[in-house]
Structure formats: structure tokens, C-alpha cells
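The instructor's notes for this session suggest beginning with a concrete chain rather than abstract definitions. Hand out the sequence below and ask the class to guess, before any prediction is shown, which regions might be ordered.
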Amino acid sequence: MCSFFKKLIAVIVSLIVIGCASDALDSVREETKGWSVEKIYAEASAKLADHSWSKAIKLYEVLEATYPYGTYAQQGMLDLAYAYYNSDTPELAIPEIDMFIRTYPTNANMDYALYLKGYINYYNDNGLMARFSKQDLSERDPKGLRDAYAAFAEVVEKYPNSKYAPDSKDKMNKLVNALARGELFRSRHYMQIRAYLAAVNRAQLLIKTYPNTAYVEEALAIQVVAYRELGELTLSQQTQQVLVMNFPQSQYVRSPWVYQDMPWYTFWRS
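After discussion, reveal the predicted structure:
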């Protein structure tokens, strides 16, 4: 019953927020009635520069609805996405960028659009649902990280001379390590709960997908122990040989892997 009332309160609060936002948008529509596209864009840009995110969002939304075509509308979509992100609503920012990418594939600012998509996914740790559900980080879907990597990779591949390319490359490297360590985290978790086959599968995925990361060593060590626990002694011995061959100085050559807790946070942020 308590859970029901909490959900009901959350819905009521959401409806109130939506209603207030709608009233604010109507107010801005009335305020800007008769304004030229140049004036609306200039005012929205000024609010964006002042970090007045809420007012900037309303102005860009009015711009998008009133003047949906042309240079100002196109740039306004990217500015709106940036304002959404900074107002703590990245779940609105990404669809806006995706719409821009689909609608204006030859736009001169496509490198920035892709970089912004990558940037938002890169820093958006948990997303809207996780904030409300208090989702455990071990259950986090890495889709956002993969989406960030894909966007940054597109910047690097298609726009190698872009001013956003160097940072895209840097973040791609960090994302590879983040994704690899995420798989290691999951493999460790499965070892902790004695789900040895799942631990092996996660470790194998890490080794196959991220072979040049520092986490391959421990992934192999986990497999050695997991195979042993599953009664697959031949596979355990073979994996140990691979570990010794590739990491002769590894601590796991001297003693077998044992579970140790590993915090998730700050894995991939700079």
C-alpha cells in the first residue's frame, strides 16, 4: 500500500510539473507573438548563454513550432538539446539530436551534433528511470556508453579534422576501458553468487570484445577458477596456461583469483 501511494504521489507531481511547464510555454508564446525568427533565436541564445535553461528551452520550443524550417530552426534544435541536457533532462536531449541527424544529414554542424550526442550519453550516468528507481549500478544497462562510443567514433571517422575529433578520440579510449571494466564487474558479481557459467560468459565477452584492455588478465583468472568450480578441469588448466603465457608476472599465476569487491563509480569519468 505504501508503495502504491508513493507511485501515486510521483504521478501527481509529474502531472503538476507538466502542467506548469505547459503554462510557462503558453506564456512565452504570448510574449513572443509577432516576433521575427531572428529575434526569437537571439533571445533564446541570450538565455542559453546566461544558463537560464528553462527560459531558453521555452524560447527554442516556440522557435521550433513557429519557424520549423531554415538555418535558425536547425541550429535551434542543437541549442535546445544542449539546454535540455543542462536542465537535467537528457532523455529529451537525445531524441532532439536524433531528429536533427535524420532531418539534416548534410548540415555543416553535423560533427557537433554527433559529438553532443556522445557527450550527453557519456556523462548521463544513470538516466531518468534509474534516478527514480534507485537502480543498483551492477544492473546498469551499458547501452548509453555504447551509444556514446558510436557517436564519438562517427565524429572521428567522418570528420577527422573537426575540432571535436581529439576529445572524441580521448573519450573513446576511456569508454573502451569503462565497458571492459563493466563486464569485469558483472563477471565478479556472478562469481560472488556462484553463477559460474555466467561468470565465464562475461569474462569471455570481455576478452573477445576488449582484448587490448588491462582487464583481460583478471578475466582469464576468473575463468580458471570458474571452470574449476564447474568441474571443467581441462578447460581450467588450459586457461591457466593462456594466463601464464600472456601474463607471466601476474599475481594470479602465483595464487588463484578470489572475490574482492570493486566499486563501480569513477570507472570511466576523467
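Then share the key points. The two ends are 43 Å apart (CA to CA). DSSP finds 13 helices and no strands in the chain.
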